[in-house]
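Subject line: Sequence and fold of a protein, written as structure tokens
Body of memo: The sequence and its backbone structure tokens, given next.
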Amino acid sequence: MLCNLNEVLLDAQKGKYAVGLFNSVTLEMTEAIFRAAEKLNSPVIMGTAEILLPAASLESVADMIINRAKRSKIPVVLHYDHGLTFEKCMEALKLGYTSVMYDCSTESYDENVSRVREMVKIAHAMNVTVEGELGHVGDNDGAGKLEKPSDYYTSVEMAEDFTHKTGIDALAIAVGNAHGDYKFPPKLDFQRIRDIRDAAKIPLVLHGGSGLSDNDFKTAIDCGICKVNIFTDINKAQVFGMKQAINSGIVGAFDIVPYEIDAIQNVVEKYMRLFSSVNHVA
């Protein structure tokens, strides 16, 4: 069943567990994520990021997930992740997304507030939740790599002000996390997570989850993280499944699919157990 972020994250916040967001751009990813959630009786957040749209259109992702979610008894949030433009966020709303992240974190603070506040007004009128980002979550590769990440960590004082002024439902924070594969073990600022939790009082989001240690996840969730974004690990799992199939002598694309789904599902189940979201569906 389709729902918005508030319908899964507020319970997670009270229960001190986290709900995973698993970005999907293929049918195999989508099916694997659903199978994991239904098997483990776990709420789940699904969708795709704007940067991934060359692999699949927003409309295709919506069709793929919405139809599957309507047949499921599991709470499913269809989330537009890292929406970079107002136009694409509006397209997601029109297609039936139940949550959007309007990422204006690279803009000035005042511009970030102004843009996100306007998106909140529009989305809330449609019963759609909004995630914002404050600070800047860097990239492990490419142009987004930050020379001194701590300069871009989320300010506690700004987090409280930003939440109040925009009316967002969830806040993505920068506390030493980064997108993609970590080249070196990350050092998360756990005390900063606690301080932001106490100041902002809304569910907090950790982007760049793939590659963190189990202890990092558990500690971050205990400190106030309620939503964790995962893509890199399931993206790699699909390729691992393909290789397994080919190494087993499979030569047809149809026969490779079960290997892909199994490999992705194993990764998703691992994270759901790690986030303690198992058996949180009434």
